[in-house]
Design a protein that fits this description.
This is DGKH kinase. With 85 residues, this protein is α+β, with helices and mostly antiparallel strands. Helices cover 33% and strands 19% of the residues. The chain has one domain.
Length: 85
């Protein structure tokens, strides 16, 4: 994540569940990356609960790796939503 300090705009894809997303968001806060122009986070729901991914419309799981190219294209075109945590 420290590499992203050199960029104004970036996207991070978290492959995991709610715990993984929470951990990455905490690390982003520690590094003050959230203060940059555009820090966006995507979620590939690979965890057990995946409540955040479900609420954001990404579904509750991603267990079909043959769909990965389509999922990545969808993430690339996705709109952003503000998150208060």
């Amino acid at each position: 994540l420290r590499l992203f300090q050199k960029f104004d705009n970036f996207r991070i894809l978290v492959c995991g569940g709610d715990g993984s997303v929470g951990w990455v968001l905490s690390e982003i806060d520690k590094l003050s990356l959230h203060k940059q122009a555009s820090c966006q986070l995507g979620v590939l729901p690979l965890g057990t609960g995946n409540d955040l991914a479900r609420v954001l419309g990404w579904g509750g799981s991603c267990d079909d790796d043959t769909q990965l190219p389509q999922i990545l294209e969808k993430l690339e075109r996705a709109s952003t939503k503000m998150l208060d945590r």
